[in-house]
């Protein structure tokens, strides 16, 4: 069983998802090692001191000891804080200069602590990915670069799916 969730995308229902996981494990339907859970670091938590607490909040809500994959949701940062889409008084998004390498180091520390099994990124272009890959002292390479391209038709998605037997088409509900 594979779950790709984020606090934002799961409609803030990580508690309910965690409850369902625990219930099915307790009933013997599934074992934890049979579940692949992918969590996401949201863009208002890129400051290194915010990375682990945000992950721990997810783990607490899910009542899991670790996530299988934890990815940087997107390569641009918003103003740090708990507001998902911080905006100014005119409604403009408040972006923030961040150091993706420092964020990555904080993620590596989470992996070292056993809170995540693997690390990845999402929607990174080549330059952004190379920034991480060429980081001095890199401990762990990203294992994935999850790309969302909402312009693809279902037929195009299925042709991409056919290229790799291990990749399954996942319908996105928007």
Short description:
It holds the Pfam family Aldo_ket_red. By secondary structure, the protein is α/β, with parallel strands linked by helices.
Name given to the CATH homologous superfamily: NADP-dependent oxidoreductase domain
Ranges with pLDDT <50 over ≥5 residues?
7-11, 164-174
C-alpha termini separation? 21 Å
What's the CATH architecture? Alpha-Beta Barrel
Helical/strand content category: alpha/beta
The CATH topology label is TIM Barrel
Number of helices: 5
DSSP summary, beta strand count = 7
Strand content: 15-25%
Helix content: 25-40%
Shape label: globular
Oligomer: single chain
- The CATH class assignment is Alpha Beta
H/E element order = EHEHEEEHEHEH
Overall mean pLDDT stands at 85
Largest sheet: 5 strands, parallel
Radius of gyration: 17 Å
Strand order, largest beta sheet: 1-2-3-6-7
The number of domains is 1
Domain NADP-dependent oxidoreductase: 4-148
Organism: Myotis davidii (David's myotis)
GO molecular function, one term: oxidoreductase activity
Protein name: 3-oxo-5-beta-steroid 4-dehydrogenase
Overview features:
TIM Barrel; oxidoreductase activity; NAD(P)_OxRdtase_dom_sf; Aldo/ket_reductase_CS; 3-oxo-5-beta-steroid 4-dehydrogenase; five-stranded parallel beta sheet; NADP_OxRdtase_dom; two-stranded antiparallel sheet; 174 residues; globular; alpha/beta; disordered C terminus
């Amino acid at each position: 069983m594979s779950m790709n969730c984020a606090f934002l995308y799961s409609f803030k229902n990580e508690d309910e998802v965690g409850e369902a996981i625990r219930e099915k494990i307790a009933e013997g339907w599934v074992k934890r090692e049979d579940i692949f859970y992918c969590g996401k670091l949201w863009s208002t938590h890129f400051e290194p001191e915010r990375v682990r607490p945000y992950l721990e909040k997810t783990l607490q809500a899910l009542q899991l000891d670790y996530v299988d994959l934890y990815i940087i949701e997107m390569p641009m940062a918003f103003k740090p804080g708990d507001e998902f889409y911080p905006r100014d008084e005119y409604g403009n998004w408040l972006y923030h200069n961040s150091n993706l390498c420092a964020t990555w180091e904080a993620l590596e520390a989470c992996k070292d602590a056993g809170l995540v099994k693997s690390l990845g990124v999402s929607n990174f272009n080549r330059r952004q990915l190379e920034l991480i890959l060429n980081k001095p002292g890199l401990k762990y390479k990203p294992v994935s670069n999850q790309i969302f391209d909402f312009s693809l038709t279902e037929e195009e998605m299925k042709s991409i799916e056919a290229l790799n037997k291990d990749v399954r088409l996942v319908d996105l509900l928007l």
